[in-house]
Amino acid sequence: MEGEGVESKENLRDDAPRIEGFLGRGSMVTVSARTGVDLAGYVCDQNESGLLLDARDPSGDSTGYEFLPWSSIERVSAG
Fold first, then answer.
1. What stretch of H or E contains 34?
2. Taking the CB of residue 25, how many other CB atoms lie within 10 A of it?
3. Is the pTM of this model over 0.85?
4. Residues whose CB falls within 8 Å of the CB of residue 14, separated by 6 or more in sequence, listed in order
5. What residue numbers bound the domain in which 48 lies?
6. Which has the higher per-residue pLDDT, 53 or 3?
7. Are 73 and 32 in contact (CB under 8 A)?
């Protein structure tokens, strides 16, 4: 089992993000929700309840703040 952990660390890209950076305040992300809606925006905050975004429309204009509970999120992509 130790060999598997060592091998995967060696194969990890040098620029692979950590959660703190990936979901850190000010990070631009796209979130796919279980409702079928994709939201793009800047992370305002996150905690054990969910993710708070400053949502943006395709032109980059703010559309307001959106709170997404973790249970409603299928995928988060860096953008």
1. none
2. 11
3. no
4. none
5. 17-61+70-79
6. 53
7. yes
